[in-house]
Design goal:
The protein has helices at residues 11-15, 41-57, 88-102, 120-134, 166-175, 229-252; strands spanning 3-5, 22-27, 63-65, 109-114, 137-142. It contains six helices and five strands. It starts with a strand and ends in a 9-residue tail after the last helix.
Length: 261
């Protein structure tokens, strides 16, 4: 059972991987995260959780870590300087190209580890495209699920903390404290959304949004003011543990028959 970094292997070394090796692709984003966080917040999170989980899972199965994707689908933040994004069509094409190229070798399992909620729907589409076009078994894992996709946010954020709020800020205080400017952190929770019974994050009716729709003025949707590195460490460690367990399942997943292991 091994962990490898794909880019450190030679061509013949990659040929020695097998069909049950799981290739893990961290998927982040480069986008505004308010005045207190760097634009690479999601990329840093994807890289940290993917590598930690891949190393841990590599104690029980074969895992190879691919170089991460930084530029992805971030058009909800396109209004802001610093957001570098791909269209949905381009990102799907990039993912297809990566899958096609990976399938030239022996690896037949590809897991996306996503840290940007704006990618989730598109990555779900890519799972089946890569399965049908290139014969890969494909999986979508998350560093964390945002509140608008079934995850939770702290009570102080009223279920509305989806971007640049408490948890993301805490995680960055743990991972890269030198890049966080807590003096610039402000509570920016769109509390008026709680007036709607059916429409909202985690409610039956979802809605299309951009991060400048909510009247916060700074692109943040949440409350980062109480963030601390201790919380960030707990969140990152939990994400690594959860995803390591998921990767171990990805390595043995067979939808066509039951497993006893």
């Amino acid at each position: 059972m091994t962990f490898t970094r794909f880019i450190d292997l030679s061509g013949p070394g990659i040929e020695r991987l097998d069909a049950d090796t799981v290739a893990v692709l961290p998927v982040g984003a480069i986008e505004q995260h308010g005045p207190h966080l760097p634009v690479a917040t999601d990329y840093y999170m994807a890289e940290a959780v993917a590598e930690g989980a891949a190393r841990a899972a590599g104690e029980a199965c074969d895992i190879t870590l691919l170089p991460g994707l930084a530029y992805t689908k971030s058009d909800e933040h396109a209004w802001s300087a610093g957001t570098l994004w791909l269209s949905a069509r381009t990102l799907l094409a990039v993912l297809d190209d990566i899958g096609r190229a990976l399938a030239v070798g022996p690896v037949r399992r590809l897991a996306f580890l996503n840290a940007h909620g704006g990618n989730s729907a598109l990555l779900g589409v890519a799972l089946r495209e890569l399965r049908t076009r290139h014969g890969l078994r494909t999986f979508l894992l998350h560093a964390s699920l945002p509140a608008d996709q079934g995850g939770t946010s702290p009570a102080s954020e009223l279920g509305l903390g989806v971007h640049g709020g408490l948890n993301e800020t805490a995680a960055m205080l743990h991972l890269h404290p030198d890049l966080v400017e807590m003096a610039q952190a402000r509570r920016s929770v769109p509390e008026h959304l709680t007036e709607y019974e059916h429409i909202g994050f985690g409610k039956p009716v979802s809605f299309g949004w951009t991060s400048d729709d909510f009247g916060t003025g700074n692109g943040v949707i949440g409350d980062p003011t109480g963030a601390a590195p201790e919380l960030g460490r707990k969140l990152v460690d939990a994400a690594i543990a959860t995803n390591a367990a998921a990767l171990r399942e990805c390595a043995r997943f067979r939808p066509d028959r039951p497993t006893t292991s």
